[in-house]
Specification:
This protein is mainly α. It is about 70% helix and about 5% strand. Helix 4 packs antiparallel against helix 6 and helix 5 packs across helix 6.
């Protein structure tokens, strides 16, 4: 029976294996990166319907059209990176403007509230009325001993309808104010979009559009006359009995 290998030799072997694997990975990484950066080949072929189809893999070309598929020369085609950068910059500015607007700020502030803050912000008037009703119910024993049952019953007959009326009136007022705020917000957004559209594409007046239509109609008439004039269909005479 052979003696077990010392612990230091096993550790050296494992370290050597790890270093070898790391060297292989480092040597293979540039080749993999070079393959990923290689220019993609685009193939074109004509389908049975007569349309030219472009694909990025030769295997996607049908077997019948594969011998006639040709690679597209992309060396002279511009990637148009300036347009992409401009679009990305404009989108970033728009997103930054939206995030900095008071609507998004209010939405984030509302999301950061707790359940009590949300309840108070949305139904604060009902919370106050419910608190007043709860105080009346909790103070009923003391008020009955102080005022007496007849006076307390009369007070409840006056207080409960008054609280219900105040709750209904406050709910209607809050709903109307929120509706008015939403309408103003929509009007402001619509006006902003209209100004942006007018700045990008100015609206033409009705006389200008009419003159443009007349010019196009006259041009079409000259084109028809140059081709041989209008085809006049024979006018049918009404049938008369002999």
């Amino acid at each position: 029976m052979s003696a077990p290998a010392p612990r230091g030799s096993c550790l050296r072997r494992s370290c050597a294996a790890g270093v070898g694997a790391l060297l292989v990975a480092l040597l293979a990484f540039p080749a993999l990166a070079g393959d990923g950066d290689a220019t993609q080949t685009i193939y074109r072929y004509r389908n049975p319907a007569g349309r030219t189809v472009y694909v990025n893999d030769l295997a996607r070309v049908p077997a019948a059209q594969r011998p006639r598929a040709r690679a597209v020369d992309l060396s002279r085609i511009s990637l148009n990176e300036a347009l992409g950068n401009d679009l990305q910059r404009a989108a970033s500015q728009q997103v930054a403007a939206l995030l900095g607007s008071r609507y998004c700020t209010g939405a984030r502030r509302g999301a950061a509230r707790g359940w009590w803050g949300t309840l108070w912000h949305v139904h604060g008037h009902l919370v106050l009325i419910g608190g007043a009703l709860l105080l009346l119910l909790l103070g009923s024993p003391w008020l009955v001993r102080t005022l007496g049952v007849p006076q307390w019953s009369k007070l409840l007959l006056l207080a409960l309808p008054a609280l219900a009326f105040v709750a209904l009136l406050s709910s209607s007022a809050v709903r109307a104010s929120r509706t008015l705020r939403a309408a103003r917000c929509r009007r402001r957004l619509s006006a902003r979009a209209l100004r942006r559209d007018r700045g990008a594409r100015p609206c033409r007046s009705r006389p200008a559009r009419a003159s443009d239509l007349r010019a196009r109609t006259a041009g079409a008439g000259r084109w028809r006359r140059a081709r041989g004039g209008h085809r006049r269909h024979p006018v049918r005479q009404p049938l008369t009995r002999p």
